[in-house]
Amino acid sequence: MRSSILALAVCLSCGAQPQAAKAVVVHAPPGGVRIWYPAGNYPQLVLPDGRREVVRSMLNVVNPMRFGNFVWNEDRIPKGPVWVRVDLTRQLLSVFRAGHEIGSAVILYGTPHKFTPTGHFTVLEKRKDYYSRSYDAPMPYMLRLTSDGVAIHGSNVRPGWATHGCIGVPLDFARLLFAAAKKGDAVIILAAEPEQKKSNVH
Amino acid sequence: MKWKRVLLLAPLLVGLFVVAVAEPDPRAIGMAIKDKILAELKDPLRLYDERSPGRRGSVTLLLKKSKTGPRERVLPTIREREPAPGIPASGDPLFAMPPEIPSFIPGPGDFPPLDNPFTGPPFFPPPFGPPGFIPEVPPTGPNPPLPPLPPLPPPTPIPEPPTWMMILGILAFAAGVRWQGRHADLCRIR
What we know:
The complex is a heterodimer of chains A (202) and B (190). Chain A is α+β, with helices and mostly antiparallel strands. Chain A is built from two helices and 15 strands. A six-stranded mixed beta sheet of chain A has the order 5-8-7-6-15-9, with helices on one face. The N and C termini of chain A lie far apart (49 Å). In chain A, 35% of the residues are buried. Chain B is 38% helix and 1% strand. β13 (161-162) of chain A pairs parallel with β1 of chain B, so a sheet runs across the interface.
């Protein structure tokens, strides 16, 4: 009798709850830096070409970000492939490493007449101190995406402004992104969607 | 003694028994907690919506990106006003003939009458010395010889001693500053 009761107690106390607590580690809301998704239940972001990228954790940004602000945190994030997601609809750029989001910032992008191309790109060139002769303007920490000059670079990110097709990010964020990304890394630019369109998360 | 231990463990055992009866599957508790946590977790796009500044409205191109080439400032609106008098409204605006001056035709009051050009009391100049007096200048002889000039002092060396002292002082000051800076660097390195 005693042994059976003790076995039941051990089963209840150690068998179920600690297993769940070990699988679901939530360091996030309300004040945490990062939201960790449980192993086996990773959400996926659908890319324009149909591929899906697994998201293991996201930065926990509760309030809307302002123009010129950004978040960057790569503590406890292992090394791995880096890819950049540019969301023109939400005016956000996110940097992922090994499936973990390590940075996010509000961006500037092109006007309807000088539009930003969308799709799948790779970093073709990195130039720390780049000066555009076409536009007679400095473009620090430039990551070139296309051969015709579209790039991600440091810019004065202010509300109500747009670029000639490049993606402008805050200067400090551009420095961090420049250090994190390397030539050949993927950059996904999502087109601006109509407001009625549904989300594409799975 | 044994009964006391049983009494201490009784509430715990009763609680475990109740839980076991209410939830026959022991993993159900863990699954419920897991589902609850998963429901609390937000998907990435929901997080993007929360942090997004919103959709973009009307925008303006960044001014710093100006095309190279001749720069010209253009007024935002066309200003129209009456042309200045004497300048033709059309034609080359950079050069215009001056307005034609009409010929001068004197009127009756433009000149005083010639027989009495001045008005007012008559003017008499004051007398100047007695009439006919011319002072006589005494005759002068040859000029006396000038005294000889004193000899010029010998030229002083260039730079002069005070200048040398000033240069040496500047060099000494610079050497002191340099030594002090080097000493400070060594202290900082250590």
